Amino acid sequence: MMEQKIQEASVKQKLATRDQEGKLIKFEVRDDPEQKNKCDETMELLLAAGYFRVRIKGLSEFDKIVGGLAWCIQACNFAVDIDVLYQENSILRQKIALTERIVLVLSQMKCPFNIEPHQIQGLDFIHIYPIVQWLVKRVFDRRAEVGDFTRAYALNQYEKQFLDKNNIVQVNEKKPLTENVEMIRMRYRPKRRYRYLETKKKKYTRDERKRRVHSTLLEFGQMHQLLLSDNSTSSSTTNENQQNDTKSTVDAMMKNMAGEKTKITTQKVNTLVSKEQNNLIRLLEEYEEKEAALLQEAATSETGQQQLLIRTLTNQLNKQKEKINNSKTQLNEAQEKKQLTFDEAKEALIKQQREQIESEIEQLEKDAQNIDPESLKRVQILMGEYESLKKQETEKKNKYKAEKVQLEQEISKLEARLKSDMNDDPENERMKQIDEQFQQINDRLQKQRLLLVH
């Protein structure tokens, strides 16, 4: 049945490629020149980034593009929860899944260009090219970061392993670091929190050995769950019972263990103190002897005197610095107190003013309630009339000012014309007319000035 269906499908496919007369249909396949150019540019970008598989002629363009994208994502060292795996000559389902993964990873990498899986599968190089360009740029940036970090790490390891003892600077730099590391190790070393009380030595059974191990772990703060013996464990016991048994066992062990401070006897304390006291006395004597020898050498030699002088000066400077720091702290405290008092006074003044304003507002409201409404309306009407009169007055003033400016301009023009026509004798009549006009305009100007004054 299946073979018959396959044969029918192959016959239909053959018939679809033939015309009615039975001749083969010739299809003309055209290439988009823009897509071709973008494809070449994309391949050149991947080759420049270091993905040399694009040179293999046997691979399809889809394999080259998808392989290049997967390689760029892995080279960027971007932490994602998806493994971008690439296999050549994949089936259609694998290609779709791979393109969907690549698009998801690009969105997580915050790629500024949007693309869909079908565009990668359909080899839409116009939209693929900017994404490849962005990824290649990220690859180069990542290489520069990794190169700088690797170089600095290699130099650091070389200086650690092959330290030049003749180089005093490196030795002096390393010495305080090693001392600090050792000090930190000693400070945070394991400390016993409890001490197991053992009355006498005896042979331990298997359960007692387990209990002793867990009590020792408990001394260092590790609260491990106790392993119950084979006899005590059974399938019928529940987790709740086990927890209760474990808790009771730990409590019993802690009762049998004394505190870190209480277990040291007074005799041991006295011996330890005497030993440390002798060591301290010996160290102080050695320090005083060395200091006296250094002072004697400093007194005999010139360089020593200079060093002694420098030391005294540094001590004096340090004391002065301490005094300055103390005075600064005192000054800061005084300023803070002053600021606090100022803020409190300011708040009190603001509060007082606010209360005064509120009381005045209340008084005004009370007075407004006592006013007759008819008189209030009359006052409002008078205020409106006053505002309208004031507005008319301002408008008239502006109008008169404009007329004044215009008249002054006309006067200036007439004066200029008079100056130009002073030497013309035949035009005496015209001059008289101009004088009359000037006199009229001057009279009008005087009237306007009087109006402005009133």
From TrEMBL:
Keywords, in A-Z order: Coiled coil
Record flagged with keyword Translocase: no
Similarity remark: Belongs to the CCDC93 family.
Domain annotation CCDC93 coiled-coil: ranges: 187-452
Gene Ontology biological-process annotations: Golgi to plasma membrane transport
Region (Disordered) residue spans: 416-435
The CCDC93 N-terminal domain, residue ranges: 34-140
This protein's name: Coiled-coil domain-containing protein 93
UniProt xrefs under Pfam families: CCDC93_CC, CCDC93_N
Species of provenance: Didymodactylos carnosus
